[in-house]
Amino acid sequence: MTELFRSRLTLFIGMVAGGLLVLGSLLALVGIAILSRADAGATANLLTASYWVRFVGWLTGLVAVVSLIWTFILAQRFKSLWELVGVGLFTLFVALGALLQAIETQGSASAGSDLISVGYGTLALIAIAVALQKSMSYNNGTLPTSQAPYWLVAAGSLILITVAQGLGSGSLQSTSAVVASILGAVGFGGLVVTLGVARARDQLKSKSFGTVATGLTIFGLGLIASAIYSIPGNGVTAFKTTFIVSAGLAAVAMALLILSAWIRIGEIGDQTSGSEAYSQASSSSAARGEPQPRPDYNTPGNGNLAHRLHTDVAATKPQSNPSSVGDLASATDASRRKYCSYCGAELEVDASFCWSCGRPVTR
Predict the structure, then answer these.
(1) Angle, in degrees to the nearest 10, between helices 175-200 and 209-229
(2) Which tens digit of pLDDT belongs to each residue from 327-356?
(3) Per DSSP, what are the bridge partners of residue 339?
(4) Gap between the Cα atoms of 327 and 239, Å rounded
(5) 170 falls in which pLDDT band (50, 70, 90)?
(6) Of 130, 182, 215, 304, which one is least surrounded by beta carbons within 10 A?
């Protein structure tokens, strides 16, 4: 799933989707703010509009994921494609759930919440599968450190959010809605803790970490506010106040995630610039008949994270001379590795397009 944060086009479309979700939250906030016993028609119209805007937002997010899937297919990167397909299913389920909520037929809101719950459940299953994959890679010596625990904790957090979404499909003011909001808040808290531990152990290097963690934390605080307005017996004033706080926090949290995507786009631009400089230096050296320079992956902006991780893994493996047939075969395989001349990503030997930046591979 980390490939989602390595494509500038996907991140840009995701920013547009996030903007629509912010607008949906603001429409719901205004709708509840003007709620009155005398005239509830305007509130109903604004809430319906908020559901439709959220549906368009999630549909736009689906376009972002599908565009990246298509890029992977063109680049023949089928090994990691299943993760993106899973994320696409999550986005599809949530979009369909938002559509059912917007239609406002009898029972459609509950069915919509159930579909959204299935979407988060799909995301949890993907996290579990990635954890198993990371564990196997670590045991085989492919990864220098085990990343499986992070993914397992993230999967547990997503399971809590899944249960919360299913429980909260009933009345706005009920005991089940209170429990659902609390479980959702704990789930988002688990995601924040996971990211924090990974950052502390130098597993996350992106500058956008702070905004992402803050955004998820505010999402959790918004769910705590939801738990307060969901308490049965609350008066209209208490309901309106806590609902407005909850919707406002959701809008702020999504705005922070949009900001983190913009920061990440800038990081990718820096990496691409460094790789292009390396490519130009290599071309100049080749023209003069000099040895081509190797990129410095320890310097920010040179190569992407996947390539730097590959370099780190290679450094941890024992070096040996190709004195045997097996060692000679390994050395030959290493010499056949191919990298993108634009962004530095490692490519399949027969790839026609770069899976990271989408540009055609020069032969």
Answers:
(1) 160
(2) 444 444 444 557 777 766 677 766 676 666
(3) 346
(4) 70
(5) low
(6) 182
Q: Is residue 361 part of a domain?
A: no
Helix or strand run (H / E) with residue 339: strand 338-339
Greater model confidence, 296 or 104 = 104
Domain final position from 270, 294, 327 = 270
Return d(Cα 227, Cα 222) in angstroms, integer: 9
What is the C-alpha separation between 290 and 281, in angstroms, rounded?
Answer: 11
Cβ burial of 291 (10 Å; 0-12, 13-18, 19+) is: exposed
Sign of the torsion formed by the C-alpha atoms of 4, 10, 12 and 14:
negative
pLDDT digits (tens, 9 = 90+) for 47-100: 889 999 999 999 999 999 999 999 889 888 888 788 899 999 999 999 999 998
Within this chain, do residues 207 and 86 fall inside the same structural domain, yes or no?
yes
Q: Which domain holds residue 156?
A: 2-270
Contacts of 279 (CB under 8 A, 6+ apart): 341, 342
How many Cβ atoms sit within 10 Å of the Cβ of residue 167? Answer: 21
Q: Does a structural domain hold residue 126?
A: yes
Query: Distance between CA 231 and CA 180 in Å, rounded?
Result: 12
- Looking at the structure, tell me whether residues 262 and 278 fall in a common domain: no
**Tokens 């299943």 appear where?**
82
Regarding whether 305 and 255 lie in a shared domain, the answer is: no
pTM of the complete model: 0.74
As a whole number of Å, the CA-based R_g of the chain is 24
Residues 168 and 195 in one domain: yes
> Do 342 and 227 fall within a single domain?
no
| CB within 8 Å of 73: residues ≥ 6 apart | 81
**Quick one: 258 and 277 in the same domain?**
no
Is residue 316 within 8 Å of residue 306, measured between CB atoms?
no
Q: Is residue 91 situated within a structural domain?
A: yes
Measuring CA to CA, how many Å separate 15 from each of 5, 12, 20, 260, 271? 12, 5, 9, 9, 20
> For residues 153 and 129, is the Cβ–Cβ distance under 8 A?
no
Same domain, 262 and 321: no
| Domain assignment present for 353 | no
Total number of domains constituting the chain: 2
